[in-house]
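pinging the channel bc i need a second pair of eyes. not urgent but kinda urgent?? the chain im working w is below, pasted from the shared doc
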Amino acid sequence: MQSAILFFSISIVTAGLTIALAVLGASAAQGKAASTAFEAMARQPESQGGISGSLILSLALIESLAIYALAISFVILFANPFTASVLNLIKTLP
């Protein structure tokens, strides 16, 4: 029984760390992308349309990585593929 508690505790911590690290990385990348785009628009105002379009696309792609991490953490929490194996292993232990 202790093994099951340990397994589920580690799963919860792993899911939390996954989303925390993904959000930190995504927010840093979005800040850097926006900063660079605004600098470029300040230097060349005539190219603002192309830069803002590229910025929106890159921000969407960066945000999708955070959403993928959220999906992975949901899988770890609610549909963990190792749950059945761990529970079967625990049943066989004396």
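so The mean pLDDT is 92. and The chain has three helices and no strands. — does that match what u expected or am i reading it wrong
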